[in-house]
Amino acid sequence: MKIPLIIIAAVLSVFVTQGCDKGSNDLELAEVAVIEAERDLEIAQSEIEANIGIFRQEIENKIMENNLTIADIKERIQDEDAEIKAAYEVRIEKLERTNSEMKRKMDNFRYTSRDNWDDFKDKFSSSMDDLGNSLNDFFSKTTTSLN
């Protein structure tokens, strides 16, 4: 009877040892998964920061282009009649304010989440496009109505 008892003890110890190894393997796998998730999060964060930096530079360039366009418009209206020139100047001032406000909004943007970035970028890009179109169409017949 002593031999089967030893065999049973040996078999039980193998099961217990394997059970411990399985738990330790699960723990190691979980630790690896956490490390990989943290690395993926850091990579995603770096990509978003890079995208924001690129977007900021593009906007800065557009704002500088808008300033040059505004300066060109101011120069072109110098020879206009006083009434037309005054109306143009009112529109130019509004466009200059909008351009400055867009710069301020971009400068003040703070990233808090991917959703906040995507929402800001979409709305901001649309507003910048509208401003650019207004500047490009400044002298078109549909936008020069003085009423």
Question: What would you say this structure looks like, in words?
Answer:
This protein is mainly α and 147 residues long. The protein has three helices and no strands. It has helices at residues 2-76, 82-108, 114-136. It is rod-shaped, with a radius of gyration of 33 Å. The protein starts with a helix and ends in an 11-residue tail after the last helix. The model has no long low-confidence stretch (mean pLDDT 86).
Gyration radius over CA:
33 Å
Mean pLDDT, rounded to whole units? 86
Distance, first to last CA:
112 Å
Strand content: under 5%
Count every beta strand, where a strand is a DSSP E run of 2 or more residues.
0
The general outline is: rod-shaped
What would a concise description of this structure say?
With 147 residues, the protein is mainly α. Helix content is 85%, strand content 0%. The radius of gyration is 33 Å and the shape is rod-shaped.
Summarize the helices and strands and which ones pair or pack.
Elements: H1 2-76, H2 82-108, H3 114-136
Helix pairs in contact: 1-2, 1-3, 2-3
Question: Which properties best describe this structure?
Answer:
0% strand, 85% helix, single chain, 147 residues, mainly alpha
